[in-house]
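Before a colleague's protein record goes any further, I have to sign it off. What it holds is a sequence and that sequence's fold in C-alpha cell form. Would you go through it and say whether the fold makes sense for this chain? The record follows directly below this note.
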Amino acid sequence: MNHKNLAIACLLAAGLLAGRAPAASHDNDVEWDGIFSDTTGNFVSPPEFDAGDTIALSLRAKAGDLTGVTCRLWFSGPDKEQRLPLSLVGTAGGFDTWTVAFTVPPTTTHVYYRFEVTDGTDTDYYDAGAPGDTWNVRGMSDGYRGEDYNFHLVAGLRTPDWSKRAVFYQIFPDRFYDSDSANDTLFPDDCFWYLDYAPALPDAPECQEYTVPEPPDGWAKWCEIHENWTEPPNEGPCDFYGGDIAGIEAKLDYVASMGATAIYLNPVFRSASNHKYDVMDYTQVDPRFGTNADLASLSTAAGRKGLRVILDGVFNHTSDISLYYNQWMNYQLDGDVVTGYDPYPDSCGAWEEAFLNSVASNWEGCSSPYRDWFKIWVGTDTWDVDRDGDTAEPAAHNCGWAGFEFMPDIDYQSPAQPDSSARVWLYGGTGAANPVIAATSVAGTWLADGAALPRGLDGWRLDVPDNAGYFSNDLPQDCSKIDNDLTLWQGFRTAVDAVGDDKYIVGELWQDASSNSGNDYTGGVFDGVMNYHYFAMPVSCFITGIGVHNVAGECTGAYAGLKAGSSASISSLDAHLAAERRVYPAPFYLASQNLISSHDTARFTSRANGDLEKLKEAFLLQATMPGAPMVYYGDELAVEGSNNELGRAPFPWSALADPDSPESQVRSYAARLMCIRNSFSALQTGSFITIAISDTNETWGYGRFDSQAQVAVAVNNDSTQHAVVLDVWRAGIEDGVTLVDLFSGFEYVATGGAVSVQVPRNAGAILVPKGLAAAADPCFAGPVETNEPPVADAGDDVRIEVGDVAILDGTGSYDPDGDALGYTWTDRDGNIVGTDVLASVGPFEEAGTYAYTLEVSDGQESDADVVRVIVEQTTSCAGSGGGTAFVGGAGTFLSFGLGGLFLAAVRRRRGARTRR
C-alpha cells in the first residue's frame, strides 16, 4: 500500500467516529475545542511499528475550520526537525480528517511530534497536553510549549494484544481456596518457624536430622495454621490458611464469571512465608501450594477456559535460606563443628562458602556457583547464630533488600559483564535471543511451552524491578547499589520474546515509568506497569480522600488537589490522568494494570469506610478508563483490611450464599462492568476524551470511541444526586442518536451535541447508541452464575459423658448458589447414622472418641466435614448422665433432663487454638 492509500484508509476509519460537531468556518480563528488526536490506533496507523516502517498520523477538526495542518516531527538520533504538511482526506459527521504518512528511519527508536493548525491568519499549536490546560481545549496553545508535551511513539514497542483487552484477577494463593487439605500441614510444626524452614526432599523425610532449638526471649516459635477460614489474618508473614494451586483451578469458573480473562498469581515458588516474596528455590512450587504438576494443570485448565496466567517474579532478592544463599538457620554450630539439616545437600550456597569457610575449621568447605551473587562478610560482632543460647558466635552480614538481611539482594554485576552468572541465570546473558538458551533461564523456562510446563505461562509481574541492579564497589560492607538497571530488564525482555511473541511483562512501579522519572521503562522494556501512579493513587484520593496505604499525608505532592471534596478535584484528576496519555505511548498505557487494591495496599472498602457505593464507583472507573482492570480477589465482595497484611484476608466464599446481600450486589455490579468492558473494543483500546467537568458538583464525563462504537460515561463523586451534562458530540455521537444507559435502561436523545443524565451519589452511567446496546445483553442475562460447590460444616468437637445422646448439627452448611442440600451422616465404619441436617447418636455406653462425617450435596458436587464426639466417664456431679448434647452449626449447648437443669456452653471458636 502506498503512502497516500495508507493514510486514506487510516483516516476513513477515523471518520466513522465523527459525530455532528458544532459548525465552523474559515474565519481566521481556529476552533480549539474541535481539535483532537492521540496515539491510539484511531489516529496512528499502525500504532505498533518497527523502525523502517511507514506509518500515518491523523488529526480531527471541526468541518470547514482549518485551512492547513503541519506536523512538526522529530526522530531520536541525529535527525533534525521535519515539517510535514497534512492532507484533508475526508469529512464525516461534522469533522474533517487530516493525515500524513512517512517512513520511520531504520535507526530510530523514538518518534516525537505535534501539530500546527491554521485557519487563515490564525496559527495555533496542538500537542499531547500540559497540566494547566482546561478539559475542553486540552493540548491547544498559542505558541510552542517545549518538547515535554510532544506526542511520543516508540519503534519496536509491541504489547500483546490480549493484554490491552484483558481483565486481570489477582490471587494471593494461600488465601483464595483450599482444595487439598493434605498440604496444609505438610511440614511438622516442631521443625519450622518463620525463616527457619526445612523443606522436604524426595529422598528424605522433612526435618529428619534437624531440630529447632527453643527460641530466645522475644522470638515467637509457632506459626499459626488457621483452622477457621473466616478468621482475620495476623499482621505477619507466618500464618497460613491452606489455599493452594488446586484450589485456584477448582475456582476457574468463578474467576471467569467476574469477567476476568487473565489471572495474576502472587509468588508460588518455595518459600517459608505466606507471601513468598522471599523465594528459596525458583524451580519448585512451594509444597504448601502443591507441586509443579499442579501448576501445569492450572495452566492447561485456564487455557481451555480462555484465561491467561502470569506469575509474580521476585528477582531483586532471594531468601537467606534459599538454594542460592543457604544461610545459617539450617545449621547448628557447636564450636567449630557444623551439624544440622541441609535442605540443599547437593548444592553449595553462597553463605556456606563465605561464612562456614571462615568460622568452621573442620568443615570440608565448598565452592558455590552463587558466591558472586551476594555481598557477604563476617563481622567483628557476635551473636547467637543458631539460637542455641551461645551469643559469642561470629556474625555474618549481607546487603539485604530494604536493609532486611533475611532477603539478600542479588548482585547482577555491571552491564560490562553481560554474562555474569546471575544474568545468565535470569535471562541467559548474551544468549537471551536464542530460544533454547532463553528456555533454560528463569525468565523463559516457566513461559516456554514444554520447558518447565507443557503449556507455558503467559507472562511475568516483576516485583520491585527498579531496585534491581548491581553493587557499585567491591568494599565488603558497602551496600551502595546501582539500581534501575534497564540493561537487566532489556535482557529479560529479549529472553521472554524469544520463547513467545505474546508473552506479557508488567512492572511494579509506584512512580511515573517514563523518561520523566529518569528511567524509561516504556521503550520496549515492559509492556505496562501496575498503575499505582496514574490510577490507584489518584482514584483513591479522588473517591475516598485517602491514599492506597490508608495513612495520613498520601494525597499530597503529585496527588494534591485530588481529594474528594477539594475545590477542583475533578479538574485535577482529569489533568493527572491526561498526563499518563502524554508520557506513555498508547500500547503501553492500554496494557498497564488499573487497580484499586492489591496485596501491598489497604483494601479499598476500608479506605472508603465501608461505603459500598464508593466501591462501586471505583469499579466503574476501572472498567471504563484506558488500561487493563485488575481486580484484587475479594474486592468484589467488599473484603476489608486497613493495611496490606490485614488486606490479605481469605476469600469469603460464604458471602456468595445470599445473592441479595449488599456484598453480592457489589459483586454482580463489578462482574457486569467487566463484562461490558469485554463487549466493546472502544473501552479496551479506544480513544479517551473528556466531555464534562463540574468541580462544584464533583461530576465528570468522558467518552471512549473507536471505529466500532462510541461510549459516554458519566460519574458523580458527590454525596448527592446531580444532573451531568455530557458533550457527547466530542465522542462522535450525532444529534438525534438515542443513547441507552446500560444499567438503568433509561434512554436519552442527543440534542445540541449533548445529553443530560441524572446520576445518584457516588455512581455513574454508561451510555451507548441504542443500536449497540445489544452487545451488552449477555451481561444482563440473569444472575451471574458462580457454579460453586457446597460447603459442609459439621460443627465443633464436643465433650459429653457416658449415657448421653449427642445431636449432630449441620446447620452451618451452605451452598453459595442457593441450591437445596442433601445431608448424609456416617460413622467411622461408613454406616449411615442420619440423612437430615440434624442426626441423633447415642446414648454412648463407653468412654472414647467417636468421629462422624457429614457429606452435603447440591446434586452435582459435594463437600464433607468431620466432627468428633468425645465421651468421658460420668463425673460425680449430681444429675449428670442421660442428657443431650447438641453439636455444631447453630451453637453448642447441653440439656439435662433431671430437675429441669439447663446448662448452656459457649461454642468454641474454631481456629482459636494453634496446631502444633
Q: What stands out?
A: Confidence is low (pLDDT under 50) at residues 1-19, 188-213, 876-916. The first strand starts at residue 44 and ends at 45.
